[in-house]
Amino acid sequence: MTAFQDPRLSAERLTVETLAGVDSDVAVLGSKSYTNRAIAIASLADEPTEIRGALISDDTVYFANAVAQFGHVTTEIDHDTRTIHVTPTGKPMKAPEAEVYVGAAGTPLRFLISLAALAEGTTTINGTARMQERPMGDLLAALGPLGVDAVAVRGNGSPPIQVTGGTFRGGRTEISGAVSSQFTSSLLISSVKAEQDTEINLVDDLVSKPYVEMTLASLAAAGIRVERDGYARFTVPAGQFFKGGQVTVEPDASGMSYFLAAAAILGGRVTIPGIGTGSHQGDVGLVDVLARMGAHAEVTEDSITLKGGDLHGIDVDMEAMPDVVPTLAVVAAYAEGPTRITNIASLRVKECDRIAAVTTELRKMGIQVDEYDDAMTIHGGTPHGAVIDTYDDHRIAMCFAIAGLRTEGVVINDPGCVAKSFPTFWQAVDSLREIS
Ligand SMILES: O=C(O)C1=C[C@@H](OP(=O)(O)O)[C@@H](O)[C@H](O)C1
Ligand SMILES: C=C(OP(=O)(O)O)C(=O)O
């Protein structure tokens, strides 16, 4: 069941060859966020689930393996058909003896903290060195009032995290939404299995709101009812059961962004089939942002097409779409005038500090960037080639690869880091070279 491994995933560096224009349909893999939600939900279901069109990448493979460690389900990954089979074993969830390791997968780690709260015993959850810097404290604090003892082993709010479970009472808790929406999503999913109803009160403004909508949509599809008061309060009634069956995952909107960016900066057309107007993925909003910059967009029920145009800078609040900020920053480097991207503090605690990384790497290409704590201004110009460091961050590698399609001499260090969310990324880039 092993898939073809692109040799570029183990290369030290890759020189991107430029392209005169594009006119392509591009196949993007399944949504990372929907696949993660489907795995989490299926791991709590008492019926088998078949996740079709799933993203099979480093993050989701770590997650599928991790949920199986609790013994309540088995997981089987079929690379050829891109299906993940999650099958209940009939056994209760039990804390695994071995540490649960999820690499650089932030969403899975955050989801696992609340899942472990449902398992008898103490679970230790850990990840890469960068993961051990990423914040979890707000989620740990919110679990306490629900009856769960979840602590950072080193007392710093970051992994390794130890969760003593089997005591998920439910009740009322408060959570901050200022750092990550994943904490709220994590509570929403696992509290379905709490002993009593769970009331989750947001004490401040929630960042990355579309991801909570995706969680609610996934829960609703599994037959789960959640009451809400906007983004201030969510109540999850106890005693509900997750439906199994088939779940079909739509293409990943963040992965799509690189190909929309290619059309924007090269000129020509790119169409992404299988995603359109009905999508809850917030990153689809990049289409409108690029249209405001001068590109031409056409969104139907089941496809998104972007055509190039004369690009100009804009002011844009990107709080709802953090993952496509690096993509937008690269497009902005080719636009006329400044692009001010605001409300993006959460980028500092992703796979790398993405505000710092994008600033450093665009400056290497000769672009003026003003860096702020929670914002960036990119002054469009004529980027030149450079060797791009990628900081073990798939999104930095992918967005600068697109710059390399337009600008000679872009070299991407560690091109294999794309495997976190898009192991076929370099093949998808190749597909742009086959004019359709
Ligand atoms: O819930 C999710 O699937 C995600 C939420 C976002 O994180 P934050 O809520 O931390 O911004 C996003 O950056 C991440 O890639 C996926
Ligand atoms: C931030 C990301 O992922 P995560 O938080 O799940 O590691 C991402 O994929 O851009």
From TrEMBL:
Keywords: Amino-acid biosynthesis, Aromatic amino acid biosynthesis, Cytoplasm, Transferase. It is an enzyme of class 2 (transferase). It catalyses: 3-phosphoshikimate + phosphoenolpyruvate = 5-O-(1-carboxyvinyl)-3-phosphoshikimate + phosphate. GO terms for molecular function: 3-phosphoshikimate 1-carboxyvinyltransferase activity. Its EC number is 2.5.1.19. It comes from the Bacteria. The active site is at D323 (proton acceptor). PROSITE patterns: EPSP_SYNTHASE_2. Catalyzes the transfer of the enolpyruvyl moiety of phosphoenolpyruvate (PEP) to the 5-hydroxyl of shikimate-3-phosphate (S3P) to produce enolpyruvyl shikimate-3-phosphate and inorganic phosphate. Belongs to the EPSP synthase family. Monomer. PANTHER family: AROM/DEHYDROQUINATE SYNTHASE, PENTAFUNCTIONAL AROM POLYPEPTIDE. This is 3-phosphoshikimate 1-carboxyvinyltransferase. It comes from Streptomyces tamarix.
